């Protein structure tokens, strides 16, 4: 089946030279971007109900930009001044770079993993007598939990935000050749918005094993998968499919 229209279940890239821009030019595609899920912050009252005492933690584990935003949002709302001595353990360089929005980078102790906290095992264990806090949404990647538990450190989660399904009702009568998903919640959003959704000739692309599993659980036919050895990105996987 030829592809002319694509719906990407993510916000539109801010970079003019994104890989999707190249696809649009190369194949004269119509690509729309729409968030199928979005993040909402918990209130200070909801966080207090978890009995989180920020003063007990001198180490903060940051897994995403959302975790950064909501950690500093809620501490400000609760009038807790984050000590300058706080150490930050960032899952990736992107998260660490984003942290500069809130702290003076060169004046803080910031440790950066290569998309995996396993890279920081020696650093975590160096401070294993201290307590660590991980600001999260309602869920946390099981691999991260397993990794942190393996360090035998004292760490706790604090839910500071939640991921919720976006309203997509305006798309009810809009059809695309290809729908692209990056998380199980994206699949969940599709069926919450359109319980009677039938795939028929619509192509489905999924990124990651958990997204693939969620799609299969809904009996969706998966036509495009990423990452793979030959297609490490979704844009490359789509390009490969169109080439045939």
| Content of β-strand | 15-25%
Q: Rg, please?
A: 20 Å
- Count the beta strands: 12
Shape: elongated
Would you mind describing this structure in some detail?
The chain has 2 domains: 5-36 and 166-243, Rossmann fold, CATH 3.40.50.10090; 40-163, Rossmann fold (3-Layer(aba) Sandwich). It is 32% helix and 22% strand. 27% of the residues are buried. The strands form 3 sheets. The protein has a 5-stranded parallel β-sheet with strand order 2-1-10-11-12, sandwiched between helices. A 5-stranded parallel β-sheet has the order 6-5-4-7-8. A two-stranded antiparallel ribbon has the order 3-9. It starts with a strand and ends with a helix. The model has no long low-confidence stretch (mean pLDDT 95). It contains 9 helices and 12 strands. The protein has helices spanning 19-27, 44-48, 65-77, 93-98, 121-126, 142-150, 184-193, 209-217, 234-243; strands spanning 5-8, 30-33, 37-41, 59-62, 87-90, 109-112, 131-136, 154-159, 161-165, 178-181, 203-207, 224-226.
Topology:
Blueprint: E1 5-8, H1 19-27, E2 30-33, E3 37-41, H2 44-48, E4 59-62, H3 65-77, E5 87-90, H4 93-98, E6 109-112, H5 121-126, E7 131-136, H6 142-150, E8 154-159, E9 161-165, E10 178-181, H7 184-193, E11 203-207, H8 209-217, E12 224-226, H9 234-243
Parallel strand pairs: 1-2, 1-10, 4-5, 4-7, 5-6, 7-8, 10-11, 11-12
Antiparallel strand pairs: 3-9
Helix pairs in contact: 7-8
